[in-house]
Amino acid sequence: MDSPHLPPRHRGAMGAVGVLGWWLLLQVVPxxxxxxxxxxxxxxxxxxxxxxxxxxxxTLDPVVLPAPGAYxxxxxxxxxxxxxxxxxxxxxxxxxxxxxxxxxxxxxxxRMKGFGGSLSDSAALNILQLSRPAQDQxxxxxxxxxxxxxxxxxxxxxxxxxxxxxxxxxxxxxDFELKHFRLAEEDLKMKIPLLHRASAMSRRPxxxxxxxxTTPAWMKSNGDVRGKGTLKGQAGDKYHKTxxxxxxxxxxxxxxxxxxxxxxxxxxxxLAALLTPPQFPTIAFTAMSxxxxxxxxxxxxxxxxxxxTRLIIMDDQRIHLPHWAKVVLGNATAARYSAGVxxxxxxxxxxxxxxxxxxxxxxxxxxxxxxxxxxxxxxxRFSVSLGCWERGVHYxxxxxxxxxxxxxxxxxxxxxxxxxxxxxxxxxxxxxxxxVDSSKDVFYKQPMFYHLGxxxxxxxxxxxxxxxxxxxxxxxxxxxxxxxxxxRQQ
Length: 490
Fold this sequence. Notes:
By secondary structure, the protein is of the alpha/beta class. The chain has helices spanning 19-25, 121-128, 132-143, 185-201, 238-255, 287-304, 323-329, 332-337, 354-362, 389-403, 447-451; strands spanning 3-4, 40-42, 48-52, 70-77, 84-89, 100-102, 111-112, 114-118, 152-157, 207-212, 263-265, 310-317, 340-344, 367-372, 407-414, 417-418, 434-437, 442-445, 456-457, 461-467, 471-477, 481-487. Helices cover 25% and strands 22% of the residues.
């Protein structure tokens, strides 16, 4: 079940908004006496990764609420702390902190869906290039109680740029009945086995999200899964019906392997021409053409299928909001078929987060979900920057910001990449919270991995936290650090 987000929406010193809500929400990073500490490796003075291999990896203990009146604090820092645990007790008064955060349990906002990453072909390949014990260490780090317990996992439908080759599930021209639809080896030998292993390690069901990058070549206007093109024809015709049924066949085939999907997006980055290389696999949609596809084809196909899979529209940059939502969800039929709006973070600096508020206000019954983010994109140097603290800061800043603008969850991109930031057949290399060095059978957990559970202050800040039912916590957030507080309410 989704959990309620209870941010206090406090506006005070430093312009802090919802800081306490952030701390209270991410109770997925505990640390206790039985846990294993980080094995650090430096790539510069403040560039630190935690090294994991077949026999050792830093771990966490399961979340256990402290006794009433006590709290637990977890802290990571640029100086090298990684989820370091300490304990304390509530006080009856404070020594005038510079910032006081007061919990207001009566103020409720959006319900949280969760946090996670993406099992691309590249991520699966990198994981499987490790020895089996090291693979298990990596999967446990993400999905188990000894890790950060991801509950969202996104998968591309067929190839993405983070594949080693371009492909689709049906390359037989004019196969409108999809008789030749087949899952690829990437699904059968890599992703599905890893999904089963990750699910077995998780104490709660994983919510899977699937996104298509491209149709088969014979459905595209340019006749190639590579490059810019549109779906042939128009909504309601045989091409659009077949493409909608392609989604259903994908869900059917995965279901045969006991894998079910919580949601699908109508298209990954339908306006991808804004950012991506010319040979990137994609099909272009406008808001109007996506609306018509949902109304006439994809929405009805999902509704009459045996699957209880939700539909997410847009799956692109927030610069398109609220316009995209107005066009698609402004249509009553499309709104009925759609559950939410998917957002990518790559152009967030171009448009303020208030566009998320505007979208929520217009369509409060449809969730907002960040479906893709990564660092190191569109860089000519250092796609992978091992141990970079600032890239972790970028993650936590994004998460904190969007959660305070009605976003229900945040999904990272590749779970694991190699030292170059791939493999990637269009050479669109980026960074990842986990980097694999298969030649040494090790993987590096970067600051981004730990930032997914924390919030950062920019300098030493004394502050207090008040729970009116319990009292006060007096604390200091050191410069370049992240802290999480956890306690039991009376």
